[in-house]
Amino acid sequence: MKKGLLPLIGIFLIMILAACGGQNGFTEDDLVFSYNGESFKLDSDASALISALGDDYNYKEAASCAYVGMDKSFSYNGIDIYTYPLDDIDKIDEIYISSDAYSTNKGITVGSTLDDIKAAYGENYTDLGGGMLVIAPEGTPEDTSSPCLYFIMDGETVIEFSFYSASNRNS
Read out DSSP for 29-59? Predict the structure, then answer.
């Protein structure tokens, strides 16, 4: 009985370690912002996110350089939502976070460290210098030509971060 149990325990441990390893790295799913049990994708209709965050925001708009209509910003305490107009819908361009009240789906928030980022996403990031780290599932993060997650660092500590769609690069 003991001989049959050891291989099963070994297989079980390998499965657990493989599952843990799959949590590292960066995928398109990491570009989804979660708030109060709801998920918000970049380039989706911003109205649901604005509604979820509430009415206590500062609003600005300006003529879009890349699209027909108005680019808009909704600034809350610790989070800014930037939109672009497409097909008569305000779409989420960027979710910019400066508070530890919000996090990525892997738990990175303001106050997290570079080691926390590496543990969550691996070491496949680009350091642009000046305290900016960029992680993108595809494309070249140096020219922000693809959707990405970027972190503004003060030394080894996250002070702000953003989910960025790069929509204006693809228009």
Answer: GGGEEEETTEEEETTSBTHHHHHHH-S--EE
